[in-house]
Amino acid sequence: MGIRVLKPGLLTTIQDLGRTGYQSQGFGVSGVMDTRSFRIANLLLDNPENEAVIEFTLSGPVLEFTSETIIAITGGDFQPMVNKKPIKMYTAVYMNKGDILEFAGCKTGCRGYIAFSSYLNVPMIMGSRSTNIKCGIGGFKGRKLQERDSIIFRQKRRYLPYFLSRTLNLPDFHEIDKREITLRVVLGPQQHHFSKQGVETFLSGVYTVTSEFDRMGCRLEGPLIESRNSKTGTDIISDGIAFGSVQVPSGKPIILLADRQTTGGYAKIATVASVDIPKLAQRKPGNTVRFTDVTVEEAAKLIKDEMNELEDFRKEIHKPCAEVLDSRLVAKRLQKLFVKAGE
What is the distance between the alpha carbons of residues 28 and 179, in angstroms, rounded to a whole number? Predict the structure, then answer.
């Protein structure tokens, strides 16, 4: 078995890193909004890097477990509880049959992720298990999760070595809800459609996240970005759009995200460095954003640094736990965690 949805939350879908290679046929990439939280959730369980997870926004789901498994919850702090008792985030947690997972509320951030050691049994469509709601494909029946949905697991995977070490205390997790962030961007590919003053305004201005913020994009409010041609503005012949592209229709920036359209006809002044998109994904309306430019080489180094950081996390959770416990307590805990693993 697997999980049963008792309450779905506001927007709860199944996602992985996305459906790449099909934009030329008109299929959007989709995938998780916060790739860092996604990767850490799977890392905590030794899952494949691109294993599908549940992503939820602003309010978490209520799930009943119909089979034993191990989970990890990352992203914003939604104050998770199992059977009404608080549990830690960024930690491997054993779930027994009949356990109820719910969330007390969104304390920081706005998106959360649940990874499963037993893997969600949803179809692989065009190389991805991600939900594309507009096309009605992927995930669970091509839609967001609803009350009474049941999803089974693909396998019985209920044992992980170094179980007590599988927890991460991340300082930036507690800072996920900063009121203002700075996003690093690579200018282009069409910054030449903007005046010198327009580019300077973009890089020096303070922009506010509006309520028009979803998986497709984030509209910002702030100082007008001047284009070179007052007649044509920023209209261009439509071309491809990357994750994090910053379009500027009517002088205001829109950052395009996971469920973005495949092409667009507005000039893109810049593209957000991929390592900074997770910071934007956790913003709420009213939070503010600044931009600073980096080179392509600097952006590539940021990715390399993040991969090194994730590898350090992997080494950390594979160390024997230094906690000293009474042998009877160890035996009791191991029995609770692993006695059913051989079923």
Answer: 30
Q: Which strands form 100-103's sheet, in the order they lie side by side?
A: 85-86, 80-82, 100-103, 62-65, 2-7, 150-152
Residues 164-176: tens digit of each pLDDT? 899 998 877 766 7
Amino acid at 76: G
Distance, in Å, from the CA atom of 177 to the CA atom of 127, rounded to the nearest integer, reads 33
Label residues 113-135 b or e (16+ Cβ within 10 Å = b). Answer: bbbbbbbbebeebeebbbbbbee
Instruction: Give the three-state DSSP class for 101.
Output: strand
Whole-prediction pTM: 0.91
- Three-state SS string over 171-192 comes to HHHCCCCCCEEEEEEEECCCHH
- 324 C-beta neighbours (distance < 10 Å), count: 6
Measured CA distances, 332 to 165, 329, 338 (Å): 17, 5, 10
Residue 47 has a pLDDT of 97
Terminal Cα-to-Cα distance of the chain (whole angstroms):
13
**DSSP run (H or E) holding 151:** strand 150-152
* Buried/exposed code over 34-58 (b: 16+ C-beta within 10 A; e: otherwise): bbbbbbbbbbbbbbeebbbbbbbbb
Task: Please state whether beta strands 254-256 and 245-247 pair in parallel, antiparallel, or not at all (unpaired).
Answer: antiparallel
**8 A C-beta contact, residue 119 and residue 76:** no
Measured between alpha carbons, how far is 244 from 259 in angstroms, rounded to an integer? Answer: 11
